[in-house]
Predict the structure.
Amino acid sequence: MQEGPPVGSPTIGSNDPSTIETPAWQPPKSRVDRAAEQAALAYVRRGDHAEALNILMDTYGDPVMAFAIRTVRNRELAKDIRQQVFLEAFQGFDGFAARSTLWSWLCGIAYHRCLDELRRLRRASAADDLAALDDLAVAPDLTMEVDRATKRRALEQCLGTLSVPTRTQLLMRCLLGLSHTEIGEIVGAPHSTVQVRISRALPRLRQCLRGEGLAR
Amino acid sequence: MSKLDDPAEAQSLPDAMRAESEWLLARETDPSAPAPSPEIAADYAELEALLGSLPSGCAGERWQAEVLRAATALRSRPWWRTPVFRWVTTGALATAASVVVWSLLPRTPDLEVGFRHTSTTRSTPGEHVIGDHLVITARPREAGDLRVYRSDGALVGRCPHGPGCKAGAHGTQTIDITLDAPVQYQVILVDGVSDAPPDGSIDLYLAAARAAHARVIIYQPIDVH
């Protein structure tokens, strides 16, 4: 285990412990856009599914893609999955019972389509497209400071070391902003199991970043 | 390398990581739960911020129009080309085909012969005595004619339209007669003939059935003592 980062390498957090502040922890922010959801549901009730689909794609297209590409780790596959997710939503509007948010519903579809794709590929690693993930580390904000890009690139690599269930649940929590209960409903596990899995995944991820010289 | 699942992840964490994991778990219920160290708390804050801001890498792409086109095409597809209709139709056709195949399968005519012993008789297993009941159930494939002859030439049971006959559902024929003489009884099912002679000796009957190319099933002779 590496004790510390190489001299001159960026690390997560400041290099000077005396300047560290520890603000109260906030759970990941929900991505649910209430106004967009209400508007989309109103269109669904009126039978204008195309307009509802438009709203959902505008609101949730990017996070769905961000999740899919990290799960299947291949940009083209992720694009196909994004298309499938929204087409499936379009076909399923009539059956949407509003027991969850549209966002959580879409996340469930995305999760299952990603797993289908991974099963189809048999091995998750078969489709790894690390070049695409490297691109993501610096895109789309080209003015992003170098150390943040470096961290993101390392993070993409480290995410790939996690198993698919762990990675997907971690991403659903931290990237998609779903609650443990929502994740549990999607993956068919008790929320406590999800909670434990994620609480064990984060230290592994931090450990991996330390191995890359990017954490204390 | 990514894995579909990794049992190693379920194994216990090293002590330092376990302390962090326990803190991460604790803060879910108590956000002010103390971190192992401020540096670690700051590390996780940044790690989670990084995770939360992972980009899609596809901003500005014109993917939505393509999805809308596909969705509209789905919507305007005639009902007979929808997946649901296809599934239902396929299922119905498969069921119909199964029914047709089943109805065309040659069914073997069924003949069951049993005995009912009354309390006044003392027959042993395999032995039949006067007073026992002979119960025959036949399920002919086509029009069937079930008969019981005695070795003295008497026709003692006949189905349909004869002594001891009871017609059941689905063409089942049942004859229940009392074995009333110490002779041999012969059970015959003729399947596929409707104009067998109504009476006459067993030999004439069998000759007529065979001449009509009917299927003839003869049960082993039953001796009655």
